[in-house]
Protein 1
Amino acid sequence: MKKLFRFKGFTLIELLVVIAIIALLLAILIPALNKAKELAAQVPCLANLRTLSTAFFMYQSDNHGKLVNAYTWSANPDNGSVYTGDGWVYPPTDMDIGDPFTAAGDITNPDWCTVDREIRGIKRGRLWSYVENAKSFHCPADKIAGKHNVGYRSYSMINTVRNPHFHNTMDHAVIKMGDITTPSEKYIYIEVNRMLNDGRYHWNMGAYMYCIVHETFEENPSAWHNDGVDLGFADGHAEKYKWKSKAVKDWLSMEIVPPLAPTTVNDTEDNRYFLRHIPRGDR
């Protein structure tokens, strides 16, 4: 007589054990996958900054040591601004109009500050001929343009480069390459968050603001790369700076990040690093 075999199903305890094992494996794997995803975005970001930093270095080499201008607000030298038309990039501009400064009407208006127009402004800048790739101006981890329909360029140039009249620069601007001591230690580019006080985003106008006079951040950097920010340096190299202070991490993790750093950020190793490595002259 044949034996009848009956399939034995999982008991409740066995099922719970399997679920617990799967949950444990996911808890182990997800951070690793997130880290891999982050690295996948950071590698091209650092490559972008090396490209831009090399372009910065080549420009001064081709112009007898004269530095390109960090200021991007106006391409019109007749409007009374300190900008003289030699910026590394221009504002968002429509090539069919004569005045690219028109974009300044509303810096958050997605109907004007579109990606296409911003790329047109980038192409009119002094460094475009050294780069000729719009993707070099955008970090893959930067999702602002996709989410908010405004802003494409992920990087700003530090405000001390060719801007002697800014209130937060005073007489510490660097005008020629010779003004930059130890170029391998002086950052030129930084990733920026581009958030306004009300939580809206803009097209990354102006330069990145660090106030030498009061020794404080006046604009919020990005925190896209595992609590760090990518920097491009005056000698052409790029590297990641990892935030060390909880005060800085708390500031940058706020839902609406105020551009002016809270006072708790000033007395930190991070703030001292950015003050110590900013390119500066004394005149």
Protein 2
Amino acid sequence: MSQFLPLLEAALPRIHPPIAWVLGAPRLIAQLAARLDQPRAIAYQMDLFQATRLREELADAGCPLQVQASADLWDLPADFQTVVFPSPPRAERELKIDMVEQAFHVLQPGGALIVLSPHRGDDLYPKLLKKIFGKASLTETSDGSIIWAYRQGDRPRRRHEMWVHARVDDAGPLRFLTRPGVFTYGQLDAGTRALLLAAEIRPGDRVLDLGCGAGAVGLAAARRTGPSGHIAFIDSNLRAAALADLNARHAGLSNFRVYTASRLESLPTDEFDVILTNPPYYAIDSITQLFVERSHALLKPGGRFYLVTKQWASVDPIVQQKYGEPEVFESRGYYILAARRADSSQA
């Protein structure tokens, strides 16, 4: 994280308001924005949870930066003179490409995209910016690389997306659309397959796909609930929620609802027969804790909870604290923890 401040210092002569900050860890963006101290700026995030954290970091830093969350960067108005993209070191390559292409469309004519890369000899951005903008410039420092380009003319919008066809049961291939920045792009991951294999889902069940991504778990569950069932999808990632809605409609689901929330605050309690979740592995003590605790209130008494993880030793105590000892199934390196909310007679 400390690499980005010197890179920003070196890029300062090329940064002119109004400014858009693109993605980046909340604390990093707050630090960079506070250093720039430019009120004519907006910070873009794709995820409501990250947007909330960023607002908290900005408040702590005393930086009055506006935060805007949406499924796409080009949902912002095309009136920025500078877009600054502190390239996340571990972000997927396809998401980086997507953000660069979308940045072109939110710039004023002659406006600049400036990428701050922590890598010297960056092998992605110089070629990518040249392809999108027609010309790109590069400066390397001991802290990394600064790559910039200016918008000239116009170009068609290109949406990066990929259809996935995956067999999860005997009802034919599951088909759903994926996009970069949503778990998992271009595939159905093995953890999802393991989760679906272990879960008991009955006709007429009300099922919650918790942290739904593109909605593959909920789509597969809908095949088992039948038309009398109901599927709810929820994610803090706005692009994920949009995809889940699109995929549910494409699959012909009529009895479903999609929610967006940063802390699962918009869901009704005592509502679901089954909750299925594959929480992100990078945030066990925060996201997983939230998912487990809130799911207990969202389930009906006697409702069934299924969580898949590769990190059983860390997740099992969190589940036990809320549900008691779960059943554990293992499949190809994944662990599925199955638990029930006690019914009223056992409470």
Protein 3
Amino acid sequence: MKGRNPFIFFMCFLFLFSCRQEEEIITNEHTNVIVDDNTAPPYSEVTTIQIKNYINKLFIDLIGREPLNEELENITSTLKENNLSDEIRQQVIDELHGKDEYFFRLHQDFSIRFIGGADSVYISAYIEQEEFERDNAFASGNIPLGQYKQYEIDKLELLLNARTDFQAAAISINEYMYRIAFNEIYDEINMGSENFVLSCFENFFKRFPTDAELVAAVNMVDGFPSQLLLVDGINKPDFLTIMTTAPGFNEGLTIDIFKQLLARDPNSVEMVANTNLLLNGATYQYIQSRLLKTDEYAGF
């Protein structure tokens, strides 16, 4: 009997060790959930509070106010009844994009960032002052000054009408941004050709120019023949046309929209996809919609 004890002890040890190993494996087990055909599960776990928060966020970001109680309840019901589908989210976003409030909000945002918050009242008063100086110039025989003042008045009137023209789809986002920067108000904020060029690169492209780009752009703005981004130009309108039609302009818009709505930069895939859409005629509102429909934005 004594000769068998070591063997029995060894077998018991192996048994206990194997049990401990099996216990560890069971502890670390997990279950994979497979969704057939890559179909996302229904939004049954999204709460009413989350849906209402999403709606509030849409209203504030797009039209600058919270929804009225009736608006909130109606949209909440519609989203719930349709299982928060992309199509219904798009309908809600389209309705907000169609409101006058949306274009007031958009214009106010760009005005604050580009021209110190100058609104229609301020611009109209500016035009009246320029008209007074124009009339005095013509009356005193200073024809060149009178013509120059009329030129500035024409640009200010384009700025004054930028919001309504954009809302009516009479101009693109490119032309709209061109007008925001092509006026005396923007010039006074960014005095001097170099400051003007730097501000345009930062506002439109979200980057600073290279040394070569800066030299070429300043020369162009000052009225000398130059080439910027492989395009020839000779004056400030040429410079702004190049800036608002170059691929970098669409990249800047994409960055702008992502930062405003998702509080982050687009990744490389998102940048390429949205920039290409803009290059192929997609509207500013369409790019916004792509982000506004996402669960990331909604917080679901």
